[in-house]
Each structure stands twice: as C-alpha cells, then as structure tokens.
Specification:
The protein is α/β, with parallel strands linked by helices. The chain has a single domain (about 5-305), classed as TIM Barrel (Alpha-Beta Barrel), CATH 3.20.20.30. The protein is built from twelve helices and eleven strands. Strands 1-2-3-4-7-8-9-11 form an eight-stranded parallel barrel, surrounded by seven helices. The protein has a two-stranded antiparallel sheet with strand order 5-6. Strand 2 (about 40), helix 3 and strand 3 (about 70) form a beta-alpha-beta unit. The longest helix is centred in the last third of the chain and has 18 residues, at about 200-215. The termini are close together.
Length: about 300
C-alpha cells in the first residue's frame, strides 16, 4: 500500500446503533493494522455527537497495536484543561511507542455544540485562544523542564511526567478550512487536516498553506484530507446510503454536509479514483470514514492500494 491511508474507528456509529462495547472496535483496529493501513483515528464529542472518549480509546488502540499510527480526527482541546491534557497525551504516546498524532479543531458553531461547551463550563467564543494557548502550554510541559505559566491557566515551577515518547511531543495537525485557520496551522502546527469539500477546494487551501508557511519561514505542514466514502456496485444506492448516514450522524440535511465535506459513493473503481485524485493533488495522508460494510471495504481498499 503506497498511499498513507487511515481509517476512522466508528465510535460514533456504534453508539448510534446502540452498541456501547469496545471489543469489536479493538478487533477492527487490529484487522486494519494487519491489512497494512497507515493509521487509525477516533473522533471527539460529548453530547452533540455522542461517542467513546477519544483519549481513552487512543490509549486502548496504542496498546492493542504495534506499528500503525493512531490519532484524533479531531480532538476538541478547548474542552480540556491543557495541563491534564498534556499528561494524558504524553501517556498515550508512551503506550503507543511514539505513534500518536494529535488532530485538533475548534468545533463548528451549532446550537448543539454550543450546549456541549456550556455543559463542560467552557466559553465557546474563546475556543480559538484556548486551543492556541493550551497547546503552547502542552509543548512547554513536554520539554521536561520546570514550567511557570501565567495566562488562562497558572503553572508555578512545575515539571510534568511522563514525557511523550516523541521528543517535544506528538505532532499536532489542525483541522482548518478557512484562510485564518490555514494560516494558524502554517504558523504553529505540523499537519493540516481539512474535510473537503472537493479537490479544487483542497488545492486552493494547500496553496494558501504553502504561502503562509513560506511567510512564517516554516516547513510545509503534512497535508491530509478527511473523506467519507461508500463502496457499492450500485452508485445511486451508495450515494443514498451516504445521505442517510449524514442525516443520522449530524441531524441536518445531507446537502448541507456535502457542501463542506468531501464524499463519494459507488463502485470500487470510482471510490479509488476519488481517493487517488486527492493524493495526486498533494494529500500525503488520507483519512477514510466508511459508510456501509466496513470489513469488505477495508479489504477491497487494501488489495487495491
């Protein structure tokens, strides 16, 4: 498998179907590693889109696998105290032997997500500043030296342990689609994780990312893309399955989600061409959210790539 393909573990989907267990998810993770995929990913939400806690799941994924990278797609760091988060991420990276990627975002502005932030006693309107400062504090703590910090959080000559397995901490990939977020990614982080909506939009964002990276004198962050796909011989049925999935997952019309998320349904050849097009446009790492039969699709993709 030449492409770096990742698989989103269906923590949200299992909850939607009433399955709160984790044995099947962990078995799937081991299967995906054996098939040769590059990475495993988990999402994050409390009440807006309920699912298993991402940090706990990442620790479990790190323990049951040995080579595949693990990551969050995406973590909402603003919901968490960064001192606690720094220790949790360092511990996960140690469990995984340095295989952790921290994909992070600020969360969309919807009533349900605002209610989620309120329930967590976190000001929604300050989430960008909390993300930036929170990760800056994490990185200071990951140096293994005494840290004093005065800002949203106060730290007094404290030293964190354990340190991450990766020197300086795991790479941080930012989910960003608007110009301000893309610039923020180029200035501060190691990877870019948009969700679409199409190749043209991805290419435009990648150009903005390169321009900003040059401006800040930083290397171009790793470019990834988050895609939703459904493999089925009947293309019309596959696209309908995606629409049904998006409606249940988000609770809003699928046309709205398709306007901001890259989706493709149809025969294997159509879906692989769709994936390949993003790869040829500069996506170094492609994260797949699957609709339909996951086991069959994973095997088909592994055999193709």
């Amino acid at each position: 498998m030449e492409l770096k393909l990742g698989y989103l573990i269906p923590t949200r989907e299992n909850i939607m179907s009433g399955d709160h267990g984790v044995d099947g998810l962990l078995a799937r993770a081991k299967m995906v590693e054996q098939l040769g995929f590059a990475s495993l990913w988990v999402g994050d939400s409390l009440f807006a889109r309920p699912r298993h806690d991402p940090l706990t799941m990442l620790a479990a994924l790190g323990a049951v696998t040995s080579q595949i990278q693990i990551g969050s797609a995406v973590l909402l760091p603003a919901l968490r105290n960064p001192v606690v988060l720094a220790q949790q991420l360092a511990t996960i990276d140690q469990i995984a032997g340095g295989r952790l990627i921290v994909g992070a975002g600020i969360a969309g502005d919807t009533p349900r997500i605002r209610e989620e932030f309120e329930a967590a006693s976190v000001p929604f309107d300050k989430r960008v500043g909390r993300l930036i400062e929170g990760f800056a504090l994490c990185r200071e703590l990951w140096k293994g030296e005494p840290v004093s910090w005065s800002g949203r959080w106060t730290v007094k000559e404290a030293t964190l342990a354990p340190l991450p397995a990766q020197a300086g901490g795991p790479p941080i990939w930012l989910a960003a689609g608007v110009p301000a977020g893309i610039r923020r990614c180029a200035q501060h982080y190691e990877g870019w994780m948009p969700i679409g909506p199409d190749v043209q939009g991805f290419q435009k964002g990648l150009s903005q990312l390169q321009e900003a990276a040059d401006e800040f004198g930083r290397p171009l962050p790793t470019a990834s893309i988050y895609l939703t796909v459904c493999v089925a011989e009947n293309e019309q049925r596959a696209e309908a399955q995606i629409d049904e999935y998006l409606t249940e997952y988000y609770g809003i019309p699928p046309r709205v989600m398709r306007s901001i998320q890259a989706c493709c349904g149809g025969p294997l050849s159509k879906v692989t061409d769709f994936i390949q097009e993003f790869s040829e446009s500069g996506a170094e790492h492609i994260i797949l959210r699957l609709v339909g039969n996951h086991e069959t699709t994973l095997q088909q993709l592994a055999e193709h790539f």
